[in-house]
Design a protein that fits this description.
The protein is of the alpha+beta class. It contains two helices and four strands. Strands 2-3-1-4 form a four-stranded antiparallel beta sheet.
Length: about 90
Amino acid sequence: MPVVLLVDTPNMSAAQFDAVIADIGPELPAGCQTRIAGPSPDGTSWRVVSVWEDMATGQAFVAGTLRPAQDRAGIPAGMPSIQSWELHDLAT
């Protein structure tokens, strides 16, 4: 079942996001259908919303690829808040 992951990282900058993407590569990872990113409305965090083929694939990416890249970009460990829900509809 496809899922949506919302990763909300306090005090993360666009430059740090760009560093993470440069580290992991700009292509969508296997199992990821789409990714959007930008600052939160109040500017206090950086949000990334992604759609994954299933929860296990998304969680494996976060743990095995994203968190290490965030560490290398200087983002404190344990900072992101992650929410998830089942996807009902996606139109592009």
